[in-house]
Design brief:
By secondary structure, the chain is α/β, with parallel strands linked by helices. It contains eleven helices and eight strands. Helix content is 44%, strand content 15%. The protein is globular and about 60 Å long. The structure holds coenzyme A. The site of coenzyme A has 15 residues, from helix 2 and strand 5.
Amino acid sequence: MSLILSEKHNGVLTITINRPEKKNALTRGMYLSMADALLGIEHDESIKTVLFRGEGDCFTSGNDITDFAERKEGDTVNESLIFMRALFNCEVPVVAQVHGVAVGIGTTMLLHCDFIYAETNTRFVLPFINLGLVPEFASSYLLPKMAGHAKASELLMLGEPFGTEDACQFGVITGSFSAAELPAKVESVCKKLVGKPLFALLQTKSLLKNDSESTLHHMDIETDVFTQAAGTEAAREAFDAFLSKRPINPEKFK
Ligand code: COA
């Protein structure tokens, strides 16, 4: 079974992250599959909405840490960048249906979606600092604008989980619903979006995204710093500790 499922139905492209046994951790290949699915609808006027969801008990646990650990010095974050650029450039509205946990890029990508609905008990976390890493894909630019500098500092420099109440208040999600209500809510929003006139829909999204140049600029800056951070001793220690299921050695995490 494919790790990324994409299906076009009734004007909606649904992209399902399908690696439940690894909490939907995203590998290089999975980023490329998601980018392909997004790029594949660029000139397809029958698709007016994209929906992201996760199979199993969570949305995604973020980047596969094995992939991080296997990076060679100087390796760039190419595949995730290709995906995030495709998401950033997606002209139709993007809806995310989130449940369980959304870790790392699982939360970062939500900052680039348009409608984000989460199950009430979802936990979000931007754990980069605790892995010796830095924010990615313009989150250090977008989050302060959404949540304010003080809250963004807390989220990005402490890297602790937060719930749907905070996520709603920060503007990270649109709303939260019970597990029983969520699928119907998402379906109804997708249906409404598909019913809108295409030109007006695309232009409205484009007009809302009036800060694209600065966002892309920050994405590039963060990608460079992220690449450097991933090669530090602290990051290597954090990756190895997670994969070996052991606590981080503070002597190597400075
Ligand atoms: N990368 C690689 N493997 C991952 C992973 C990730 N991001 N997240 C989970 N897995 C793997 C676990 O190693 C485990 O593999 P195993 O069955 O071979 O031992 C399996 O998925 C199940 O995860 P587990 O940790 O046992 O589930 P849990 O319910 O106890 O915890 C999480 C779920 C998401 C809280 C926890 O897995 C986690 O913290 N993952 C890492 C998140 C992270 O730091 N991501 C990187 C962001 S930059």
